[in-house]
Structures are given as structure tokens and as C-alpha cells.
Amino acid sequence: MKEVTQLLRAWSAGDDKALDKLMPLVHAELSRLASMYMAREPAAHTLETRALVNEAFLRLVEARTVRWQDRVHFFAISARLMRRVLVDHARKKGFQKRGGGQILNPLDEEKIAAPVHRAQVVALDDAISRLQSLDERKARVVEMRFFGGLSLEEIANVLNISSRTVLRDWKFAKAWLSEEIGHT
Predict the structure, then answer these.
(1) Does the pTM exceed 0.85?
(2) Which of 99, 84, 109, 126 is nearest to 174 (CA)?
(3) Are 143 and 80 a contacting pair, CB within 8 Å?
(4) Most buried of the four, 30, 141, 159, 173, by CB within 10 Å?
(5) What is the pLDDT of residues 13-29, one digit of tens each?
(6) Cβ neighbours of residue 158 under 8 Å, at least 6 residues apart?
């Protein structure tokens, strides 16, 4: 794990060879994240897991100026990029904003891996963007928890706050998002 952090920092400092060493170390975890995302998508989804990993990787390469804290921070950013890829893909496929009348699955812990319609991803993304304008930290908690599958402790580490604060933010954000999506 320390090797990943060291390679991330070296890459940020301009060492392109560090990226070549880093990718084999993080590829399995990126694939796991992508598989988790794709499991929520309908079977007829035109984006494949490998394509999601590749597109997120390309966006990561463009984000080389990020000052990586550690491996968890890297995967939090990766989760954000995968979210963007899926939302961009859904929007290109013509899905209406705010879910097109679809009812969003609640953000319950046991439903984090439940299938989500593409329109629901767009609706959730729109709602998270609105939440972000009100409280950026709570929006990041949702993003890392729902889209990234990070534990409360991992999120606390990335955000440099207590696990109890993350739990409060998560509970508030779930309630706020349910209310917000229910009124769109």
C-alpha cells in the first residue's frame, strides 16, 4: 500500500515511469470499482467494464497535477471520474435530466450495489451537484460511498474528518437527496 502512495506522489512530481509501475498495482481495484458500477447498469448497457476503466484511466492521466494523499485518495478520485464517465455516457444516450420520471433507488446501505437505471444515475448526479453547491463535503461523502464503495473509515481518511462526522454527513445526504429527487 505504501508503494502505491509513493508511486502516486512520484507521478505527481513528474515521474512518468512511476505511472507505468503504478497501473499494474491499481488495475484490479479500478476493475472492481468499474464492475460495481456496471453491475448497477441494465444488461443492454453499451459501455463495457473494461471501457469504463480505460476511460477513467485516461481522465486520471489528464489529472496528473493532483497532489495525491494516498491510495484511498486515488480511488476516491477514480470513483468520481467513473461517475463522470457513466453520467456522460447516459447523457449522450439521450436520457432525460432528473431521471426522466424514473423513481430513484434509495441510497440504503444494502442497496448500494442494486441495479440503477441510467436515467437514475443522471438524476442522482444532478441532485449531487445541487447538494455540492450547498455542502461540498456531504456531496463528496455520497460520491465516495455510493459511487466508490468506500467505507466510512476510508472516507474519513480522505476527508481528514472523523468516522462519526462521515456517518452524520452520509445520513443527512441520503435524506436530503431522497427529498430532492422526490420533488423533481
Answers:
(1) no
(2) 109
(3) yes
(4) 141
(5) 888 898 889 888 888 88
(6) 69, 72, 73, 76, 144, 150
